[in-house]
């Protein structure tokens, strides 16, 4: 197990390194001199030359890359051009709101999926099951940011029941959490359903029942654990997407998280903040994947030896 | 990146009922075909230019008559542009970006996957680590980042979304290459002196094509939703091109007073995505 964890950890660090490299390359691919972009349209040639030298943009690429990497190791991305404060701490200060939203959304998703999934698994193939499964597939395909706008239209503009956006108390979580989590809830409910149906048919469940185990114990000891394997595999990917999807949903609901900061920074060409946000997203995504991998190995011992 | 992974996991769960499946499939195909026709020929039949603003006719509800003769069937937006014209323009953008992105990522992914799977050894190791890294990075964030850095244009959106979606095609074609490369007929082709490229193209690619097409269909929906999201955020296609995402963003400030601006393009997008996912789903069920 330790060996497995160490291997996954090494891979995670490699991914973050790769992500940082991608950030470096993409930022350099921006048309025009970053110094010109930073200074704006009415900068003099002397100012541009000075800033180019100060940012080290006249040095060879490999030196710039080395310096950039060193900066990342020190968690220093430079100052935000918009707010004139260090960019990474600025981005970090917005993580809390995003994490709170993703967390609330996640709890809702799990509750919905583990209520609807088992219900449908009890009546596989019946009309109600087919209708519900199709509906879930349909809802899952809806564009989340548009659903967010519809929720605003109905619950804020027409019913006036909920706050219009921003973070203000518990009720402000409801709409963004729904908009963020609904595709995930549909996917997870379908997975729980199919997982349970498959598991309940298997021989070891028959055996457990034949032993005289109660339905609840069969569920707790045998079905849940086996059903969780596919749920976790896909769930892990989805959890990361939930976090990433926040970039769009936070903009819709004016949520003071890191996603809306990223979009704002892009609009103001505040590249150090953009880099910091993408870096944080990458780290969060990698960390989530790592946790899921470890959980996966914990639930399914076969994973530990086969490796990847 | 997500959707296909799911659909393979969900493959077994669908209730099997042949007739139902076919009706759904036909209905969805007809709707998608209608979108394609409207995107190609639509502009010929609407006398409103999607870029033509008319401040006197702004914010007309669907069915409303403006001062300019002719009815605005689906109303107008905040600048008096005809909504129907904008929706048709949006369909063109969505379909063009969807097809171009799928084509680019399909070719890129398939080539990488076949090479990795057939050659094996260190080539496979390097290419698949690359794919793993790509998978371990949220694709929408990557697309936002790339599109923002490159600037807004249709081509840049295609590049950004292709970079975010080639991995699934690489994975599929690699898996197919791995499972076929030692089959007797591939061996025979090799013994007859066929080169590596020829073997990959003539014996392995045809086998891989079927799952590739299924996932291309599934991925299509993901691509056009991503395009709309990018344009909604202002990092997608230029504002002058009236993508559905742009129109949805334009209507955001008028939600309370003019619901149709944001709602209609969303419906157009949602219907197309749902139909594509039904088609992908049925193909999956039928072909695999």
Structure, explained:
The complex is a heterodimer of chains A (308) and B (288). By secondary structure, chain A is mainly α. Chain A is 76% helix and 0% strand. Chain A is built from 14 helices and no strands. In chain A, helix 1 runs antiparallel to helix 13. The longest helix of chain A is centred in the C-terminal third of the chain and has 38 residues. The mean pLDDT of chain A is 81. Chain B has 288 residues and is mostly helical. Chain B contains ten helices and no strands. In chain B, helix 2 crosses helix 10 and helix 3 runs antiparallel to helix 4. The longest helix of chain B has 38 residues.
Summarize the structure.
The complex is a heterodimer of chains A (308) and B (288). Chain A is mainly α and 308 residues long. Chain A is 76% helix and 0% strand.
Largest beta-sheet details of chain B:
none
Bin the strand percentage of chain A: under 5%
Overall mean pLDDT of chain A: 81
Q: Give the ordered list of helices and strands of chain A.
A: HHHHHHHHHHHHHH
Please tell me the overall pLDDT of chain B.
79
What gap, in angstroms, lies between the N and C termini of chain B? 20 Å
Distance between the termini of chain A: 14 Å
Q: Note the quaternary state here.
A: heterodimer
Question: What's the SSE blueprint?
Answer:
The complex is a heterodimer of chains A (308) and B (288).
Chain A: H1 2-28, H2 34-39, H3 45-54, H4 61-73, H5 87-92, H6 95-121, H7 127-140, H8 144-158, H9 174-200, H10 203-210, H11 215-252, H12 258-267, H13 271-299, H14 302-306
Chain B: H1 2-9, H2 18-45, H3 83-119, H4 121-135, H5 139-150, H6 154-180, H7 184-191, H8 196-233, H9 244-251, H10 260-287
């Amino acid at each position: 197990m330790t060996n497995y964890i160490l291997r996954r950890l090494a891979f995670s660090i490699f991914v973050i390194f790769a992500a940082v490299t991608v950030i470096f390359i993409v930022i350099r691919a921006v048309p025009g001199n970053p110094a010109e972009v930073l200074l704006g349209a009415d900068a003099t040639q002397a100012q541009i030359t000075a800033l180019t030298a100060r940012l080290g943009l006249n040095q060879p690429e490999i030196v710039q890359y080395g310096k950039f990497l060193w900066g990342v190791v020190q968690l220093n991305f430079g100052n935000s051009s918009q707010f004139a404060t260090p960019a990474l701490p600025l981005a970090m200060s917005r993580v809390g709101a995003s994490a709170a939203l993703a967390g609330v959304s996640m709890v809702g998703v799990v509750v919905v999926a583990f209520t609807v999934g088992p219900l449908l698994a009890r009546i596989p193939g019946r009309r109600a099951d087919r209708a519900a499964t199709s509906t879930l597939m349909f809802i899952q395909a809806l564009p989340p940011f548009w659903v967010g706008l519809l929720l605003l239209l109905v619950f804020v503009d027409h019913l006036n029941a909920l706050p219009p956006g921003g973070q203000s108390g518990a009720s402000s979580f409801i709409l963004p959490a729904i908009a963020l989590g609904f595709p995930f809830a549909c996917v997870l409910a379908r997975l729980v359903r199919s997982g349970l149906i498959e598991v309940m048919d298997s021989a070891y469940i028959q055996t457990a029942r034949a032993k005289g185990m109660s339905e609840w114990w069969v569920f707790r000891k045998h079905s849940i654990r086996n059903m969780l394997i596919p749920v976790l595999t896909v769930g892990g990917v989805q959890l990361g997407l939930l976090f990433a999807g926040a970039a769009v949903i936070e903009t819709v609901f004016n949520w003071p998280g890191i996603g809306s900061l990223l979009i704002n920074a892009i609009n103001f060409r505040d590249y150090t903040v953009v880099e910091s946000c993408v870096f944080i997203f990458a780290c969060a995504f990698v960390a989530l994947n790592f946790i899921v991998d470890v959980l996966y190995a914990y639930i399914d011992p076969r994973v530990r030896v086969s490796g990847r | 990146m997500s959707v296909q992974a799911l659909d393979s996991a969900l493959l077994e769960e669908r209730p099997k009922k042949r007739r139902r499946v076919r009706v759904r499939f036909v209905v969805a195909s007809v709707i998608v075909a209608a979108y394609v026709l409207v995107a190609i020929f639509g502009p010929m039949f609407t006398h409103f230019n999607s870029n033509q603003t008319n401040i006197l006719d702004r914010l007309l509800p669907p069915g409303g008559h403006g001062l300019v003769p002719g009815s605005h069937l689906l109303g107008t937006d905040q600048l008096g542009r005809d909504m129907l014209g904008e929706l048709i323009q949006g369909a063109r953008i969505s379909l063009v970006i969807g097809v171009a992105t799928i084509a680019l990522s399909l070719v890129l992914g398939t080539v990488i996957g076949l090479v990795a799977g057939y050659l094996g050894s260190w080539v496979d190791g390097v290419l698949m680590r690359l794919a793993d890294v790509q998978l371990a990075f949220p694709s929408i964030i990557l697309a936002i980042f790339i599109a923002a850095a490159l600037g807004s244009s249709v081509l840049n959106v295609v590049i950004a979304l292709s970079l975010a979606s080639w991995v699934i095609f690489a994975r599929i074609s690699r898996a197919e290459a791995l499972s076929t490369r030692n089959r007797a007929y591939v061996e025979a082709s090799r013994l007859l002196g066929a080169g590596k490229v020829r073997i990959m193209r003539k014996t392995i690619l045809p086998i891989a094509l079927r799952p590739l097409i299924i996932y291309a269909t599934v991925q299509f929906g993901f691509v056009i939703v991503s395009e709309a999201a990018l344009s909604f955020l202002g990092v997608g296609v230029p504002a002058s091109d009236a993508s559905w995402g742009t129109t949805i963003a334009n209507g955001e400030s008028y939600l309370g007073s003019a619901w149709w601006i944001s709602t209609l393009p969303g419906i157009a997008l949602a219907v197309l995505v749902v139909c594509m996912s039904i088609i992908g789903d049925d193909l999956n069920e039928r072909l695999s």
